[in-house]
Amino acid sequence: MSTIEVRGLSKSFRGLRAVVDVTFAVPDGAIAGLIGPNGAGKSTLFALVTGFLAPDAGEVLFRGERITGWTPERIGRAGIARAFQIARPFPGLSVRENVRIGALFGRAGPRDVDRVTDDALEMLGIGELAHRPAQGLTVGQLRRLEVARALAARPLLLLADEPCAGLNPAETDAMMAALGRIRDRGMTIWLVEHDMRAVMATCDRILVIAAGRAIAAGAPAEVAVNPEVVTAYLGDADV
Ligand code: ADP
Ligand code: MG
After folding, report:
1. Which residue owns the Cα nearest ligand 1 atom 5?
2. What burial letters (b/e) apply to 138-157, b meaning 16+ CB within 10 Å?
3. How far apart are the C-alpha atoms of 203 and 220, rounded to whole Å?
């Protein structure tokens, strides 16, 4: 069974074909990767899945149910949360208060909000920052806050848009390890990530897109030997 499936999804912006006939599925409990150069359509694809944008063609199925045309609020309540590429926390609120907002608007019951908040802080390793204001956090801390906020919603599917952007290799490894632990607890994850090494090491399935089109999809070992992927991303590098 697939937690999320997109079928023939397309979206244009005034003639610019941002997503073109993309089909892909993320199996229950998997961690999937979405990779492609800047402007490939990755964030647009996530916006289509989360209902922030309506597709021109195609459909989105969440746990087998067609959710195309649902509002973002309804999709969020159904169990899909997105950690945004550009985090916009409430700067004056503490790290914990920001994460708590994710829990309040999520699927946890009111009695569980504090427990879920503290669990998300711990999973992302930012418990010690709980009482610091969000303003003044480093890039790495902001990324962890953003993923914790999405995680606190207790989604069934966590979409993470470039959670490792701007992170150094050690921070990237820590973020990927945290996402692996979240997956190990049963959550399904689909993440955008540029670092091929990190994606190959962590993901069960990978979708590669370029100029809006899927150029490869499958297990890391299959994708790594795909000629188009090798040409576009890997060069002669060892993976
Ligand atoms: P990625 O996340 O892979 O870097 P995006 O999905 O953000 O790529 O963008 C794909 C293409 O669609 C880009 O050419 C981008 O400029 C364009 N685009 C994205 N969002 C909009 C929008 N709201 N209006 C017009 N063009 C957009
Ligand atoms: Mg993007």
Report:
1. 41
2. eebbbbbbbbbbbbbbbbbb
3. 7
pTM exceeds 0.85: yes
How high is the pLDDT of residue 162? 95
Q: Which residues line ligand 1 (CB under 6 A)?
A: 13, 16, 18, 36, 38-44
CA of 53 relative to ligand 2 center, distance in Å: 14
Ligand 1 probe mutation, 9, 10, 16, most atoms within 8 A of CB: 16
**In the block, residue with structure tokens 């297990």:** 219
**Per-10-residue mean pLDDT, the chain, length 239:** 97 97 98 94 98 98 98 96 94 97 90 96 97 95 97 97 93 93 95 86 94 95 89 58
pLDDT at position 234, please? 60
Give the environment of ion ligand 2: residues with CB less than 5 A.
Answer: 42-43, 85
Pocket test residue of 34, 44, 190, 207 for ligand 1, highest count of atoms within 8 A of CB? 44
Q: What domains appear along the chain, each with residue ranges and CATH number?
A: 1-79+156-239 (3.40.50.300), 86-153 (no CATH)
Cα separation, 196 vs 9, in Å, equals 25
